[in-house]
Amino acid sequence: MNILVLAGGLSGERNVSLSSGTMIANTLRKAGENVFLVDVYLGVETLPGDLGELFTNKSELAVRPVDKTVPDLEALKTQRPQGGTGDLGKGVIELAKYADIVYMGLHGEDGENGRIQALFDLLGIKYTGSGYAASLLAMNKWVAKQILGNNGVPVAEGFLLKKGDAMPRSAKLPCVVKPCSGGSSIGVTIVREQEALSAAIDEAFCHEESIIVEEYFKGRELSVGVLDGRALPVIEIRPKVGFYDYSNKYQVGFAEEICPAPIDAAATEALMRSAEAVYGLLGLEVYARVDFILADDGRFICLEANTLPGMTPTSLLPQEAEAAGISYEQLCRRIVELSLKKFER
After folding, report:
1. Between the CA of residue 97 and those of 2, 100, 305, 324, 339, what are the distances in Å?
2. What pTM was estimated for this model as a whole?
3. Which of these, 8, 83, 113, 240, is most buried using a 10 Å CB contact count?
4. Nearest Cα to Cα of residue 95 among 63, 48, 27
5. Residue 339, burial from CB neighbour count under 10 angstroms (0-12, 13-18, 19+)
6. Do 117 and 127 contact (CB within 8 A), yes or no?
């Protein structure tokens, strides 16, 4: 099978995506598939006459660690070969059409907002994961919050703020300020003092035009992967310093991850069923990951759903799958198989 792995892109999470994409590509190559990895934004400057030459290369790609800092996207724009259009680099569409399926190794705005999926649908290109509509819904945390909250899934109280809006008097501290559609905790701040609120809002607006200010819900950080509509074991994340921010997510040793999470059976059941409910309410397909905060008294809130969860060496979904007896290779293969079945319907 010819599989094109899309990674990179013009997103704050591009380095995370490149790390995920490299692991996915290496794993599928070792499993005997014909795989080519391409940066969706940079593309390929020169394509060979026979595209199959790119896919039959079985050499192992160098591991891509995730830097502690968010990439300089403005500098990246100067490195792009001529011929790319919008989000897509030169040759990406040709490669995607040649492949039997595109493995979406993208994270953040590129890949998770549904635009690439919508284009692929128009062109008849098969791809892994959720479709464009579900991707768009899940990526917009404010819209997703309304859908989930109105259907019985507990979420944090909060409000949407756009550039130029006045800060409502109802804002209470402590609170969390975050971009409306971001990921990897980029631009997220926990605000505990009034004098820090303005800086937190400015930081979030550096990343997006719309942000969310919501109540701070104290508790344990947990996540539940969902594969083909069924929840995987719950995982607990314990950052060694601060909260589960960009640095703590992707630097080895910065956080302790425990799976299955050491919580009681009732909490485990509630979180797993809630994750499955979120998956269904947002119309997600194939796989996803749903993040929660669990308080000491058993109450919990859903933070967000990730339609293209990380597949890096420190990512949560592969650890949850492993706890369920599913190896990294089996997980990658299962995602491809389930995605292909989706297009048979």
Report:
1. 10, 8, 29, 34, 16
2. 0.90
3. 8
4. 48
5. buried
6. yes
